[in-house]
Design brief:
By secondary structure, this protein is an alpha/beta fold. It contains ten helices and 18 strands. The strands form four sheets. Strands 3, 5, 6, 9, 10, 17 and 18 form a seven-stranded mixed sheet that branches. A six-stranded parallel sheet has the order 13-12-11-14-15-16, with helices on both faces. Helix 3 (about 160-170) crosses helix 4 (about 190-200) and helix 3 packs across helix 9 (about 300-310). The longest helix is centred in the middle third of the chain and has 14 residues, at about 160-170.
């Protein structure tokens, strides 16, 4: 296709509420050496979009400081980490045979080149993202999904939510036959955790509420406990021998209250703070039982490669809750913040 000179993009020029999202006509980015240009077919929303817009990540020693995912943002910034689309141009040194391949972009900016590198930046925060008609990405970070039976919308749900989920599961060393506890199970990462843990052969106990309980069970949870009631009592009844791995995106009081649920050698993996970042727990429950509390930020290149293999085989079926046109990005983010849905919200540029 002929690449136009300008495109529509949704940017933020400052931290704030949904009103700071602006639809603008901007230049189509030119892929640098080693990069590709992707026409965006679908871009999914994440809590990272909300928190980056709000500047809610804080900084070491100053938790209340306005900050992007890993530090100050270079404004204006195009949001959006979850991109599915087609390559339409390549930069110097990139195989031209990639043009027209259907791809998913790994949005992580890593601290090195190795397969186990850690993410230290994120597309949509530390570099421009996919709330746009076109986006550039390093060629080594695009994964060919041309033959995947999943739709573009489904593919767009994968990078952050499913990448985060698989990173948690891998770092928590969840094995077939073990019991996993999933908090925040109706959200994007939560549904991904349920689906991937179930596909791995684990018994999945999920925490959800109200009308979402049935949907979480349909996503693959063996048991769903109601967060409006005593969670520890319910989980204890559902898993009287204890939990092997807790996959937690809520944190807050749940960590201190839930640690005693772990079996000997259990692992509590944290990748979010929906319930609060200020956590306290009885350290005796940690060292007396050889338990581990593990922090998990997104995924490694190895984890992402494993996720793409799952998607090529359609071993997981991502749930798309709603779609919006790009111009309604603010409305889409408001819908995400209401947390009334199960699955992911997707924008169509």
């Amino acid at each position: 296709m002929t690449v136009p000179e300008t495109m529509r993009a949704v940017r933020i020029a400052e931290h704030g509420g949904p009103e700071v999202l602006e639809l603008a006509e901007v230049a189509v980015p030119t892929p640098a050496a080693g990069e590709v240009l992707v026409r965006v077919h679908a871009v999914a929303l994440n809590n990272t979009d909300l928190w980056t817009r709000e500047g809610a990540y804080g900084r070491p020693g100053d938790p209340g400081a306005l900050s992007g995912w890993r530090g100050p943002i270079d404004f204006p910034r195009v949001q959006g980490a979850d991109v599915a689309g087609r390559i339409v141009a390549v930069g110097t040194g990139v195989d031209e045979g990639l043009v027209d391949r259907r791809v998913v972009v790994d949005p992580a900016i890593y601290d090195g080149e190795g397969p186990d590198a850690n993410p230290v930046g994120l597309m949509g925060s530390e570099r421009d993202g996919g709330y746009a008609e076109f986006v550039t990405a390093p060629a080594e970070r695009v994964h060919d999904m041309t033959d995947s039976p999943l739709t573009d919308d489904q593919l767009a749900t994968l990078p952050v939510a499913y990448g985060t989920a698989l990173g948690m599961i891998e770092r928590g060393q969840l094995r077939r036959g073990e019991t996993a506890l999933v908090s925040g199970a109706s959200g994007g990462v939560g549904v991904a955790l349920v689906q991937i843990a179930r596909a791995r052969g684990a018994r999945v106990i999920a925490i959800s509420s109200g009308s979402k309980i049935d949907a979480v069970r349909e996503a693959g949870a063996h048991e769903v406990v109601d967060r409006a009631r005593d969670i520890v009592e319910q989980v204890g009844a559902a898993a009287p021998e204890g939990i092997d791995v807790a996959l937690d995106v809520v944190a807050g009081d749940l960590v201190g209250e839930g640690l005693p649920l772990l079996r000997e050698g259990g692992r509590w993996v944290v990748a979010g703070a929906l319930g609060g970042y200020d956590v306290a727990f009885d350290v005796r429950r940690l060292y007396l039982h050889n338990a581990r509390v593990i922090g998990s930020a997104m995924h490694t290149p190895t984890h992402f490669g494993l996720l793409m293999e799952l998607a090529r085989r359609a071993d997981i079926q991502p749930l798309v809750a709603a779609t919006f046109p790009l111009r309604e990005a603010a409305a889409a983010q408001r819908e995400l913040a209401r947390r009334g849905h199960v699955g992911k919200i997707v924008l169509h540029p």
